[in-house]
């Protein structure tokens, strides 16, 4: 407890990074100088576990999250009372818009569905359900999607428990994601 009116010192990330460097950790100058404290990468591992989860994604998983980011960004700018739910089908259609305009390698829908299931298994995509009084689109921690047929799985409403613009945006801006430059550039836009 601090006395009433006493000023609590503000945490400075710079001091933590300086201490890690003094102890021998290899932190790239670019990341050490960033104003984003959760982008800190020490010896190839992110300090933030959610950032590390993003760094560990396959190209098809990155493609799906970037597709979701584009969809959600556009939806936030539209003035609709009820927005269509995010689902695998919409993410795959969004990704197909990238493939049509790119000479990048083709990824088939089955691979993207497997990538989506993997994202759900890791918690980077979660099914959303109306949970009896909890309000619409609440997180569902059950693995209900595992028993669904392909059609139902493709249309299952999903949520992304990331601050997608901030966390995925940081990973894009700092060039931390494992995917083509063309896919990264496409992911930064929303149209």
Describe this structure in words.
- The protein has 191 residues and is mainly α.
- The protein is built from nine helices and five strands; from the N terminus they run ααββααααββαβαα.
- It has helices at residues 13-22, 29-32, 49-55, 59-77, 88-100, 109-122, 150-155, 164-173, 181-188; strands at residues 41-42, 45-46, 126-129, 138-139, 158-159.
- The strands form two sheets. A three-stranded antiparallel β-sheet has the order 4-3-5. The protein has a two-stranded antiparallel sheet with strand order 1-2.
- Helix 4 packs parallel to helix 9 (181-188).
Distance between the termini: 51 Å
Low-pLDDT parts are 131-137
Reading the helices and strands in chain order gives HHEEHHHHEEHEHH
Count helical runs.
Answer: 9
What is the strand arrangement across the widest sheet?
4-3-5
Mean pLDDT: 76
Proportion of residues in β-strands: 5-15%
Q: Which structural class matches the secondary elements?
A: mainly alpha
Principal-axes geometry comes out as globular
Largest sheet: 3 strands, antiparallel
Briefly summarize what is shown.
The chain has 191 residues and is mainly alpha-helical. It has helices at 13-22, 29-32, 49-55, 59-77, 88-100, 109-122, 150-155, 164-173, 181-188; strands at 41-42, 45-46, 126-129, 138-139, 158-159.
């Amino acid at each position: 407890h601090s006395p009433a009116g006493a000023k609590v010192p503000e945490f400075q990330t710079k001091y933590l990074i300086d201490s890690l460097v003094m102890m021998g950790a290899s932190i790239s100058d670019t990341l050490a100088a960033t104003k984003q404290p959760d982008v800190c990468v020490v010896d190839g591992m992110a300090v933030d576990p959610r950032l590390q989860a993003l760094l560990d994604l396959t190209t098809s998983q990155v493609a799906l999250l970037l597709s979701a980011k584009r969809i959600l960004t556009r939806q936030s700018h539209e003035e609709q009372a009820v927005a269509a739910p995010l689902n695998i089908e919409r993410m795959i259609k969004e990704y197909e818009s990238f493939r049509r305009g790119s000479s990048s390698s083709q990824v088939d829908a089955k691979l993207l569905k497997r990538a989506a299931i993997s994202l759900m298994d890791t918690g980077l995509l979660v099914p959303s359900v109306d949970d009896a009084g909890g309000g619409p689109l609440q997180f569902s921690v059950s693995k209900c999607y595992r028993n669904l047929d392909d059609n139902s799985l493709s249309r299952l409403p999903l949520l992304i428990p990331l601050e997608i613009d901030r966390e995925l945006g940081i990973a894009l801006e700092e060039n931390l994601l494992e995917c083509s430059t063309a896919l990264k550039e496409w992911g930064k836009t929303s149209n």
